[in-house]
Amino acid sequence: SQSKMNALGESIRNAIDTCENCSIKAECLADGMRDENISYGIWGGVMAGERVLLRIQRDPEYSMTHDNVLAVDAFDRLGQYMKR
Length: 84
Fold this sequence. Notes:
Elements: H1 2-19, H2 25-32, E1 42-43, E2 46-47, H3 48-58, H4 66-78
Antiparallel strand pairs: 1-2
Helix pairs in contact: 3-4
């Protein structure tokens, strides 16, 4: 339902906001860009789908996995529920 999606979007936004002033944000994001971490969670204040898209920008030959596709889809769908 719309209210559940709004609550999820707010929860994600709060998690990302927590990362904003973290002293290890850059290192965390670097770990989140690793193949084994790229398709889930929030690392360094960046959602999985965003990280996959960043990876594709950096490496157009990057081979997408099923989990990568799901992460990008979730990012796309949740974006409208997150107040940025």
